Amino acid sequence: MIGLSRRSAFTLIALLPFSTHAQTFTGTGAAIPDNGDVLEIPLQVNGLGALDTIAFGLEQVCFTIEHTWISDLEVSIVAPDGTVGLLVASQGGDTDDYANTCFNADASTSILSASSPYAGTFRPQGQMGAVNNGQNANGTWHLRVYDTYAFADAGDVITWSITFGDQPASYFQFTAGDLPLLVINTNGQSIPADEKITGTMGIVDNGPALNHADDPFNGYDGYIGIELRGNSSLSMSPKKSFDMELRDFDGADLPVGILGMPAEADWVLSANYFDKSFLNNALTFHLARQMGRYAPRTRHVEVIINGEYQGVYVLMERIKQGPDRVDVAHLRPWDIAGDDVTGGYILSVDRNESGPDGFTSAFPAENGQNNFLRYRYPRPDDIVAEQSAYIQAFVDSFETALDGAQFLDPVNGYRAFADASSFMDLLLINEISRNVDGYRLSSYLYKDKNSNGGRLHAGPAWDYDIAWGNADYCEGSAIDGWSYDFGDVCGGDGAQVPFWWKRMLQDPQFVAELRCRWNDLRGGVLSPPNIDHFCDSVAALLSTAQVRNFTIWPTLGTYVWPNPSPIPSTYAGEVDELKDWAAQRWSWVNANLPGNCTVGMPLLVQATALKVYPAHFIDHITLDGTGYGMMEVILTDVLGAVVLDTRIRGIQEPLRIDLPPSLSAGAYLLHLRGADGHVTTRRLTH
Asked: Of 133, 418, 582, 608, which sits with the fewest C-beta atoms within 10 Å of its C-beta?
């Protein structure tokens, strides 16, 4: 909820006796702000006692609201002690008003299963009964109404009422869970969407033992900044996602490693409201890391905010520059010339717009619109003129070379500007998952300094909650077809795929290398058994937590945008649906990916005789085998951090490679990437 705009002028109209055991209080209406503010209409309650879930408490809330697009609205009841009970959010459509619509925890029909326009009595979307927590009923109550899509539609609350009686609403109370528990407190502040507020967070992580909300905080105990995040999810999901940064006492960023992930200050709490399996993002990032690419690390957690249980979330790394995230050079404001200005940069392809947050490509996508590239690092407020001019010119040079007649030229073509293998890997990730948003929204790119390679890389992977067949529009759930052909099925959408991918697929070498890369991955990393193993292991981890989540967010078996039909009625059904769809998609990609794996040099996939030793190294390793061509040698730790990246011209005799002297003891992965883009991975220990 954001930016409160309290309307103290609205007061109690009447105190009406409902029955011997029930009393109804009726409040006035008000215009609903359409500027991002929250409307809170006060209503004074007197003459009652303590509220509970057994003898006496809040039974029902009713209201009439007229609005030109009610699915933009989020409506809650707020008790005198600040407890919030969500009634309804993101339901209905345009001009489907709430006509004397009542919410009662004992109603036979959930608002999620009802059809608009809404008239009658429904079970609320959230925990209305949470207000029956022992507090005194007397005081100021509020009806809270938030228009999540500002500056678009108008409307009014006509009237509303609350009823107290001897059939009070109950609510779910969290006692203990087996996932790490994040306990967040904002000290009564609503969490806004446009700036972070300061709160506190404690993490309870007792390993195999249960985690209770009142256990000592042993994973983190300190300050945070927190705000709402999301585009579609912000306006269409009542379960909110959050951007979060760890802070010290003075409000400065505080890099801390939490739940086994490397130290950083910036994190994301993803609600996964659209993805009822809680798997799509975590699965995709896991596969990308197995492919040798950086992708955000994740942990499934349960969350309590201001004493209210919020359900299962995915805590994930936010994409940003750093040695344990996107490992490009730190770019300072005075790095404005020479090699200094050439990196590092992080961009994303996003919704078309203009302004200082990024720049517009000079090359149109299929529908004639030009893609917008957003500055991610440095941020728009931090990038200086020389840096923005440099990265714009570099992207323009890349696109000009790719679009030009000589785009295949090894010196002046697109490969002089782009790391083709990274574009192949992101293509395979987007296509195996049939990501309907792939390439065109939240699609990241990064570039290091010229002295560190300097080419434009595609990635890291990001935002896959409506991938893996979980979208009922633009062929998002189809087994067949290519995501990069989005314009062929949804050419009218304002966000289109850049021309890059189809143009690269006109390069015979790219097509051959792509097929080689798929051949290497299809039986291992991207194989159905590997996908099934991850899904089954995470589903087992969530076996009890998902029950709690769907108790307070009862969406199983119910349509939530953009779930395709049929909609599974159980969590196990959601997981099985994902695995079945992924297996069918794998078969289609395998049968339809163009090209043959025929490139003019030895392929590492055939390099079974290549020896790497010692498996337990001290200060060096040796590559032993003859006839192998140019390759890139990359050593990473098990979390994906690159500790060595070098290139060799070939192997004609045993080749010694010295390793950094500061490596910690533990497991490492050696990735050998051939000039064909193929990667072979070996596991080593130190």
From this structure: 608
